[in-house]
Amino acid sequence: MSELTARLPSAFTDALQAIDEQSVDGTTKGLPPTLSPMAFGDIGKQGWNLLQEDTAFPVAVLKKSALAGNREWMKAFLRTTGARIAPHVKTTMSPHLFQRQLEDGAWALTAATANQVAVLRAFGVPRILIANQLVGRQNIALIYDELEREHGAELMVIVDSTATLEALIQGAEGRGPRRKLGVLLEVGAQGGRTGVRDTVVAAELAQRIASSPVVELRGLESYESVFPGLAEDAKLRRIESMLDTMLALASDFLRDGLFAPGEVVLSSGGSEYFDVVVQRLSEWRAPQGQVVVIRSGCYLAHDHLAYARAFDRLIDRTPTLAGIAPALQGGLEVWGVVQSRPEPDTLIVTVGKRDISFDFEMPVARLHFTPSMGTAPQPLGADYKVTRLNDQHAFVACRADSPVKVGDLIGFGISHPCTTFDKWQVILLVDDDYNVESAIRTFF
Length: 444
What we know:
Helix content is 30%, strand content 22%. By secondary structure, it is an alpha/beta fold.
């Protein structure tokens, strides 16, 4: 049992039970449109099978075997490296999956927005890292509401400017928070996203944090995947330079006594370069202890394109990680039906922009099923290519002699799970034979 799991109140279990008791029906995308109202928790009791067309189409599914394997890989990585994880919940926004991550030993959960924090607190999550600049009166008010509660969450936010910091400090005026708000100073890089660029400014900001009665400096933070368009070697050099700046500042702040009591938090590492982050940040030490926290959110579902390639590069960089557990595998699929074949070399499938991610690249048509195949879909080759998406349609180029026909099922792999999860309120969990065993709910 992880530290956070041990601290989870019964509210988490109660809230999940409340989801199971909610009514769903045929108005929910992915569920049979003829479905009469039933309890969410009974979805897995219906004996549905995707390949038998017991669901609606399009439908999003999570493969339980991939989910289990990906959990084991990340646990093995954390054991091997000694790092901790605060998974970024923006990927899935699903309490059913948060629970699994907490059970696996998550050090905290990471949010990007105040509304995401509100979801986490509704389920009683006790430690939350907000990996974003928190601005806006209502957003800041939520944080201090939590700090005023007797059993409120332990919260950490990131700052990169005096303006942001002063807004946080002013938000405490007239209040009586029971605990200080934890702050991580964010280090950025020229041309990147947020984060301090100038070390002098960073030092001044750290001094201001340390002198405040309502906030405290808990550590430093960065986000390493902010160099699109660079060749891989050049990108890695930029990442390492940013991490070196982060550690140099940490040493300065330690020397000057600016950190709050307790472990110093060093956090970076999205879903692509977390091995590089852990290797570099783990070299730093503080007398009071330190913790290296990665924030990968995509590992749980992974994908079939962008992050699949990123994982291959990770193994190339760090071959010792190849043997720690079976490789991460794509677990999130979206299935549709071929509804038209207007030309011999074109399939039109009932999956569109409303159903699947397309911000990184087009999805990939991976699997084909028709009842004559028996009980298992067959893989599609590279000659099947998604060329474009409309709101509700996928255009799939194929050979003129392709055997795929109208009414057949096509299973698509994804690139970038974050922007597929957010298109579904309910995602079905299936076994390797596509029997529906349960479902998860999302809160976007």
